[in-house]
Amino acid sequence: MTDGMLDRHEAAYVAFDRFPGSKGAAVHIGQMAGQLFDHFGGGLLAVLGGGGLPRYQRDGGIEIARFDEPIPNLIDRAEAFSAWVAGHLTPHLGTLRVCHVRDPWGALPVVTAPGRRHQVVYEANGLPSIEMTHTWPSAAPATLDKVRELERLCLERSDVVVVPSAVIAGAVAGLGVPEDKIRLVPNGADVPERPPPRPAAAPDRYLVYVGALQPWQGIDVLLRAFARLADLTDLRLVVCASVPERRARPLRRLAERLGVSDRIDWHHTLPHEEVAGWLAGAELSVAPLTGCARNLDQGCAPLKILESMAVGTPVVASDLPAVRELMADGEHGRLVAADRPADLARAMRVLLEYPDVARAMGERARRRVGDTLTWSRSRARLTEVYKSIA
Questions:
Q1: DSSP secondary structure string for all residues of 135-197
Q2: Where do runs of H (alpha helix) occur along the chain?
Q3: In terms of C-beta density within 10 A (0-12 exposed, 13-18 middle, 19 or more buried), how is residue 367 classed?
């Protein structure tokens, strides 16, 4: 028995992610699911909940169901989510035409549904077979092997695989997915008509980092680079973390050891609309991604870079293949070798010393997003995917 569902939907979007939320995944879900439901006139959204979010709600023709069982173990929780999704899909199997998924936990009940008549779009923003070795390093090899098998099964049985970058397209093809089954739908950003308002608490002059705090994000590299700018006494670092404060404790201790803790402003789980103001008011936005397999083998398409570019803030980022798909060195900001605090500090210092050059880069970045990397363009591409299979 589902939570009061009455309609029989033609479309469903399933994600083992919390929605809404402060992470980039929630922004992406909002755009992709929104386009799916616009195309089909509504549908079922099955996501993670918790934190006071209702288990069930209705927004016009969209029904939102949230899984919020407090299961500590990740694999146990993922398996419970799969069973929960299967129960919520059952009433719609006779009418469902397209189901859009973004991970193997949500995909399994969709691709194995009894008497399946619907098409499946698998959105591969990341590959758990690669990512879990970084996010869950204590996982047993046998567990990771099972995850790889599940991932391959779901990719194989999906009708089309959507990817946000050419790098991850190559990774998916490396798993045996035919290239003609892979469709590129880049991430996007909205260019505001007017600059977002500057936050009341913003310092006069600051660098900004936006995102989660996992090791592969390279925040430790940024802190070490920032320590090399100690002579710029009026410069602060603002960290807009998409995770709770407790997750920042190791990094705060590192900041103390480096002697920069009193020059850093920490903000946690800010609403997405507030983050735009912090990005727009910054001298520079920094994306110090590490050169690990998570960022090189499967790639990424960081929304933080696109959203910085969209508000005209130049970006200093790690020189990784997926990042080069979004921005060019010396044109929209600076690309530096990953995992090198000295190189990162040097690139930031040069742009800070030449603000006219930095502003020109930011303006070119804003134009690039407006011309080629908007959400409306991405959503139009996704619509073409739906038309091709439905």
A1: H-TT--HHHHHHHHHHHHHHHHHSSEEEESSHHHHHHHHHTT--GGGEEE----BPPPSSPPP
A2: 24-40, 74-89, 104-111, 128-135, 141-157, 166-174, 219-227, 249-258, 272-281, 293-296, 303-310, 321-324, 341-353, 355-372, 375-389
A3: middle
Q: Find all residues with CB under 8 Å of 88, minimum gap 6, and list them.
A: 2, 5, 44, 46, 65
Residue at 362: amino acid letter: G
pLDDT of residue 106: 97
Per-residue model confidence as pLDDT tens digits over 181-212:
999 999 999 999 998 999 999 999 999 999 99
Burial code (b: 16+ CB inside 10 Å, e: under 16) for 25-64 equals: bbbbbbbbbbbbbebbebbbbbbbbeeebeeeeeeeebbb
Sign of CA dihedral 238, 239, 244, 245: negative
| pTM score of the predicted model | 0.92
The mean pLDDT of the chain is: 94
- Rounded-to-integer distance, Cα 253 and Cα 236, Å: 17
- Which residue has 């930095």 as its token pair? 358
Q: Which two tokens stand for residue 108?
A: 């399994």
**For strand 56-59 and strand 62-67, is the pairing parallel, antiparallel, or unpaired?**
antiparallel
DSSP, res 73:
S
- 74-129: per-residue pLDDT in tens? 889 999 999 999 999 999 999 999 999 999 999 999 999 999 999 999 999 988 88
Q: What pLDDT score does 6 carry? A: 53
Radius of gyration for the chain, computed over Cα atoms and rounded to the nearest angstrom: 21
In single-letter form, the type of residue at position 186 comes to P
Maximum distance among all Cα pairs of the chain, rounded to whole angstroms: 67
Lowest mean pLDDT among 132-146, 151-165, 282-296: 132-146
Over the range 319-350, which residues count as b (16 or more CB within 10 Å of their CB) and which as e?
A: ebebbebbbeeeebbbbbebbbbebbbebbbe
